[in-house]
Specification:
Two copies of one chain form a homodimer. By secondary structure, chain A is α+β, with helices and mostly antiparallel strands. In chain A, about 45% of the residues lie in helices and about 20% in strands. In chain A, the strands form three sheets. An eight-stranded mixed β-sheet of chain A has the order 1-5-6-11-10-9-7-8. A five-stranded mixed β-sheet of chain A has the order 13-12-14-15-16. In chain A, strand 15 and strand 16 form a beta hairpin.
Chain lengths: ~450, ~450
Amino acid sequence: MAQKPSIPKGTRDFSPAEMMRRTYIFETVKSVFRTYGFAPLETPAMENLSTLLGKYGDEGDKLLFKILNSGDYAAGLADAEVRSASRICEKGLRYDLTVPFARYVVQHQGEITFPFKRYQIQPVWRADRPQKGRYREFYQCDVDVIGSRSLLNEVELIEIVERIFGKLGIGVTLKMNNRKILYGIAETIGHADKMMDITVAIDKLEKIGIDNVKAELAGRGLDDEAIAKLQPILELSGSNDEKLAKLREVIGGSATGLRGVEEMAEIFGYAKSSGISLPVELDLSLARGLNYYTGAIFEVKANDFAIGSICGGGRYDDLTGIFGMPDTSGVGISFGADRIYDVMVGLDLFPEEVNFSTKVLFVNLGAEECMASLGMMRALRDRGVATEIYPEAAKMKKQMEYANRRMIPYVVIVGSNELETRSATVKNMRTGEQRTVSFDALCDELA
Amino acid sequence: MAQKPSIPKGTRDFSPAEMMRRTYIFETVKSVFRTYGFAPLETPAMENLSTLLGKYGDEGDKLLFKILNSGDYAAGLADAEVRSASRICEKGLRYDLTVPFARYVVQHQGEITFPFKRYQIQPVWRADRPQKGRYREFYQCDVDVIGSRSLLNEVELIEIVERIFGKLGIGVTLKMNNRKILYGIAETIGHADKMMDITVAIDKLEKIGIDNVKAELAGRGLDDEAIAKLQPILELSGSNDEKLAKLREVIGGSATGLRGVEEMAEIFGYAKSSGISLPVELDLSLARGLNYYTGAIFEVKANDFAIGSICGGGRYDDLTGIFGMPDTSGVGISFGADRIYDVMVGLDLFPEEVNFSTKVLFVNLGAEECMASLGMMRALRDRGVATEIYPEAAKMKKQMEYANRRMIPYVVIVGSNELETRSATVKNMRTGEQRTVSFDALCDELA
């Protein structure tokens, strides 16, 4: 019956040490979401395949984990049918939180108070080839407001970014752009139909450089004249206001483009009134892959750690349209917990309290000493101090090793001497310092 | 493309209102776990089927959700093989948290510091027939210590039960028993081999009454003499100490039974020293279904709400043996979040703050007023007050309705009058009372 246990490739166990750090990140993120009035939502791990299929492109469809129908899944099916996943699976694991959110909003539209502000922190599953930093199960951490076109929502998200990374101690830069500006550019150079091609190419500006982008654009069917018109856009520089002024000039002939420019001007204006000090940079090379974005788009990078974007999102005008509820605009961002974790480990940003789950360990010297300790332990726990007693009266060395390995900062010793004098010895495990404290004072001392 | 969206049967969306209440329960539970030095653990949703199969009996095997292999699952398989789930699925969704915990402990035994105290709060999935109160996806909330035989661990779990239900405001009774006592009983009446039959029958004592239990025992092959010997056990009454005294008499001839009696005496003794005031009752009719229990067993019921057990668990001596790591004793309990939720709704125990996600709504009367509000909102959020502004300058009535529907307790109005006098009108939405407060005092007023 014994077997060497393992877990499926691409999945992870999170040990207590990892979980305490992850919990710190999630709690920080949630506390900020709540400060802005966002409320939690959870959707089931399994969705009907009909909800998921066709929402992530052909490639995404292939990466869905499908769940075999319960019972005799093959009953009544011909051999060829059993070879078709759609005949033997009705459900799949969620692939992201966005489609389930859209599904939820449409399904519950009668009960929801709009604008609907929700956050959602749950795992998602993708049958990607596992590789370093890419997992088949990972948490997404999304915050969205849906049912409002107001740009105050964008400003709120900027503030949330500022506040979360401020609390975590990660220096970041927020890059923004606007899909309407990107459309305006495409329209201005006479290739409105090629907006996505142009966008995808511009997105690579930082990675492959201006010449390669131009080559790629030519490859995607843009003539020299169009590429020449694009030149000032690719070379845009200066402050956000300067960039917006230049854009008004260049793409002002496109009504959509101009609207994008004015949206960004309004967002930057509100951000100033709001007292935001986070660096926010208008970056036209920012495109983001997801094609449901229609307005402002966001991307956050850590200043002092190379890892790609750690947060991103944007405005979408028709996410719920896929489920038959049109004209419901929303905006949201998603925090990348795994990458934020890596940044925090890399920059050593986790506070010390995150490293231990127990603050005080009572050494166990036998039944009588133990009985005497129980009341003190209760008093400490009443004050919220994480306290435990070593459950066996093992050798002192073993108990001290346990405290060290679990990084417990204080050890309390109640031996026969201490019992007589109604006092305890408190050892600070960091400094090695030992002090004698009366039973009565112990609680104040350690709380 | 439009489709009427729905979710798989037996699964649930948790709305913000439900999530806030659920979060309150989970946070309370976790805060107590942490007070006792338990640290969080998470394992993947998917386990290898080899880890799961055979651990829950034949019935359990059928209830596992299996995940179709990625890619061309049928490639190279004969038709008959494609009809066999074990050929097209390697992974399944976890069915409980216990087996993944045992798997984790065995897999990571080299890194773990024992005794290992962990809690784990994650969903599990079972392909049960959905019915009222039974779901295909539900959270389990487990706390275990493994690698210690000390009965102090049992006492700690009793304290945890007391503290959690105390914090939640649920009056409960803890029933305890000991599998060794049950074995001792079976041995004493000459049917040591029938311990599980006797246990299952005794478990029904409360439900079907003493006569039906006797009939069932006869049906399971016990002769009249054995049943007669069982009589004093079935009629045991009095205090825990009285019951233990009587048991020492009746089953004292069984070494195992006597050990069970002494274990319970020790646990009750420690519980007294620890100052536990929770009613703990030795109840021999308590058996609990899971056959891996080997010592103390626990079950908690709400005093004022009929719903079955809301928490239960026990001591197991060989859980990790299924994965090739013998002789590792542990003890743990599991909290039933869904039932606790129902009890709290039924008895109206959720505190008022759990009903709203935003404490202060700023009414939006236009761009200028809005700009003036942003700084105040930031100051409130700096103090942790959940604050939002209605994103559009909609009609006052609509904004007030929004506040009411979201149960927001305070609304702040900054209009042109207020702008001039640098003051805001604060409306208490519960009482209807309105006051004028200066910009400078607003924050103190509402924090």
